[in-house]
């Protein structure tokens, strides 16, 4: 095992099929697509793919049959994946991508996981977490999975020595925070909608009132979360730490081609920077740079370091509007290729 390894769990993996539209989608019309592409997906898989594309050590754990197409696709990409067998094929998710960057998602239901399969996944995570730097629990849970399963996994993984990051939403996210300190991850990556849901306020309030956003983030720290990476889409991200650290970052101007997987790539960038020993502000910078690079690519493609523009990200101490910190002289993220 490697202290620079990242292990990801994708309980609800997918084959991500991106269909490129010639214009806005018209209901009832016959559409002649500009193209189509399929990538192995699911949030944890995307994180692992982005880390591997940067030369990092990533091990995706997922439920899938031995000869499922997602297993073939990940193996072809050189990822040392760990699978727990299930009988049904991995679902397919469809993204309808318009030329202006608008994406419409059509997600199939996932493969239900019985108690034995969940136990086998937890065992695989514990095995590979030992000696690793991070374990990432990411994405939705399949039908029938208890909402509190992520909270249970955090408690199970606590003594492995690995840090734990969680990126989920809706009932699994609420159950995670309801579990208290035992279910609190080291890093939580909500977006504005998810943070608003947890705080019982509107997304507009989170986006428009810094005091509301800070109060909502503060409740996460009170429940034991050490670091909160709040992603804000085209407005960048905010990083808050339990010891009072607070930074915000705005992305460079890009032409958005697809936002699918951009949040996953942001998380991957954050973890890559952490593995490189970067300080919090630079971890945030790399996270935002990776998210922007992902959004500039088609479908659910993940960026390489050469496509990531770290110096173009504006980082400030505090909430947006503060004076920018200086750009790093030699950022790990590299330069963007346009």
From TrEMBL:
Gene3D superfamilies referenced in this protein's UniProt entry, alphabetically: 3.40.1190.20
InterPro entries according to UniProt: Carboh/pur_kinase_PfkB_CS, PfkB_dom, Ribo/fructo_kinase, Ribokinase-like, Tagatose/fructose_Pkinase
Domain of life: Bacteria
UniProt entry keywords in alphabetical sequence: ATP-binding, Kinase, Nucleotide-binding, Transferase
Pfam families in the cross-refs: PfkB (PF00294)
Carbohydrate kinase PfkB domain span: 38-305
Renumbered residue ranges of the record's region Disordered: 298-338
SUPFAM superfamilies: Ribokinase-like (SSF53613)
Family designation: Belongs to the carbohydrate kinase PfkB family.
Protein's name in the database: 1-phosphofructokinase family hexose kinase
